């Protein structure tokens, strides 16, 4: 019982998520993930398959990160153990998904180089923000693993 209490004592709740590493990364993940979502939605979806994967990843990760952040902010993790491992697993999965989506988006963008300049600039911006989101999720994964292993 004492180990469960100590485990939950290191996970922040409330405004504490705005002051601790890796939880402070929730907001940048939401911002850059939302930008990817918006920029891909603004461009011509051609070919549909890689762009559909990018949209799925950006919408899924945006939604799940928002839910995850709210769960930590409202202290839901205080009711049971295993949240540090779940945080590590989710952010590792999100980093992997975003990396695969970023590579697919970069490939589609390079293939559309001869298209309209405006759409090409939007696609380049989406690729850059997608890689930034990937980096943020990867950093969050590393710090979540460190926090999980410190228990």
Q: What fraction of residues sit in β-strands? A: under 5%
Low-confidence stretches: 1-9
Number of beta-strand segments: 0
- In DSSP terms (H or I, runs of 4 or more residues), the helix count works out at 5
Structural class: mainly alpha
Query: What's the order of the H and E elements?
Result: HHHHH
For this entry, what is the oligomeric state of its chains? single chain
Number of domains: 1
The gross shape turns out to be elongated
Distance separating the two termini:
14 Å
Helicity range:
over 70%
Write down the Rg: 17 Å
Largest sheet: none
Mean pLDDT value = 83
Description:
The protein is elongated and about 50 Å long. The relative contact order is 0.18. It has one domain. The model is unreliable at 1-9 (pLDDT under 50). The chain has five helices and no strands. The chain has helices spanning 2-9, 26-42, 48-73, 83-111, 117-149. With 151 residues, it is mainly α. Its main location: membrane. One of its GO terms (biological process) is myelination.
Question: What attributes does this structure have?
Answer:
151 residues; mainly alpha; 5 helices; elongated
List the helices and strands and how they pair.
Blueprint: H1 2-9, H2 26-42, H3 48-73, H4 83-111, H5 117-149
Helix pairs in contact: 2-3, 2-5, 3-4, 4-5
In short:
The chain contains five helices and no strands. The chain is mainly α.
